[in-house]
Amino acid sequence: MSLHDPFDIDGRRRRLLQWSAGAALYGALPRAALSDIDIAAPDDTLPRLARTGAFLTGRAALPADYVASVCRALQAHDPRFDEHLRVLDTALATAPPNDVQNVVAQMRSHSPELHAAALAIVEAFYTGSVGRGSGARMVGYETALMFEATADVTVIPSYVRARPEYWTARPADPTHPLNAQAKEAIR
Description:
This protein is an all-alpha fold. It has 8 helices and 2 strands; from the N terminus they run H-H-H-H-H-H-H-E-E-H.
């Protein structure tokens, strides 16, 4: 379903809960603290994750479909993901671009929750899965960044003979002369 499907009850319920939680937080915080908070619309999550994921993985950009898939899985896995992502994105906006390891190391001592969220984002993009054990969800196989390092010499591991999704290629033309010769050789 699309993000704005009017019949998506779960999506509407999730948005209602997000806005309710935001309203409760708004009422609970002192007015001075609110001046520093960037209140974001729910639909800016994908651009935030694209920026944050690109920074944390050292990429200029990540494929939009992959970002959307990772986002849905992380939201399902961690109910506070959107909140963590918002804070991470804001914090990383001022971080030096080539200093990912130091930034993440500093998060460990300053905010263990944000550190865990940052590692979950990196893990999702690199492994193509979110969660562990029986609760793990595959979000990308061929697009997993872990395969990039050896892409020139390694075939992506698979139980199929050719490569993942090899069956989506156009089948061979049975009338082609080479196919006819192979048929004759079998007889």
